[in-house]
Amino acid sequence: MSKPILYKECSVCNTIFYKSRNVSTKAWDLVGFCCDNCRRVFISGFVPEDPMERLLLRTVDAPGGCRLFDGDIRGGFGSAVLCGKKDFIHRVAYRIAYGELPDNKEIGQLCGNARCINPDHFVGMV
Ligand SMILES: [Zn+2]
Ligand SMILES: [Zn+2]
Fold first, then answer.
1. What are the sequence ranges of the domains in the chain?
2. Ligand with smallest separation from the Cα of 9
3. Rounded to whole angstroms, how far apart are CA atoms 113 and 82?
4. pTM score, whole prediction
5. Residue 80 Cα, ligand 2 centroid: separation in angstroms?
6. How far is the CA of 126 from the centre of ligand 1 (A)?
7. Which ligand does the CA of 32 lie closest to?
8. Are strands 66-69 and 59-62 parallel, antiparallel or unpaired?
9. CA 111 to ligand 2 center in whole angstroms
10. When you count CB atoms within 10 A of the terminal residue's CB, does the N or C end of the chain come out lower?
């Protein structure tokens, strides 16, 4: 028996969102956006071309310049898709800002905020 796919990539911000229990399978097949905000951005026709700006649609400002991801968190981090590759959202943000990142390389946040995806706050760790 094959398992139904219970997550999708938002067509606007590229973050991963998960099916919630109260969404029927039929309704789930039709959704393309992680949140109402992304749906509004899509309808407005002004979806940013820059992948970083798209990711930042899903963040809220916090003191110290932090941009905190406010989407679905599984395994402690949100996820997003970049160039067809699913990864933790802070790793995706890092790849957009600084280029490819080996799978075995971890990223820390100088601000100590695991949800922060401001590239200025990243510090690479081997
Ligand atoms: Zn979205
Ligand atoms: Zn930060």
1. 7-58+70-100
2. 1
3. 22
4. 0.88
5. 18
6. 31
7. 1
8. antiparallel
9. 5
10. N
Output the tens digit of pLDDT for each of the chain's 126 residues: 666 678 999 999 999 999 989 999 999 999 999 999 999 999 999 999 999 999 999 999 999 999 999 998 887 789 999 999 999 999 999 999 999 888 888 888 899 998 999 999 998 765
Helices (H), the chain: 25-30, 36-44, 51-56, 89-98
Q: Which two tokens stand for residue 118?
A: 């401001």
Q: Which ligand is nearest to the CA of 65?
A: 2
C-alpha 117 – ligand 1 centre gap (Å): 15
What is the Å distance from ligand 1's center to 55 Cα? 8
Phi, psi of 50 (to 5 degrees): -70, 125
pLDDT, residue 126, reads 53
pLDDT score recorded for residue 1 = 60
Cβ atoms within 10 Å of 84's Cβ, excluding its own: 6
44 Cα–ligand 2 center, Å: 29
Ligand minimally distant from the alpha carbon of residue 93: 2
Q: Which tokens in the block code for residue 110?
A: 């100088």
Chain CA centroid to CA 106, Å:
17
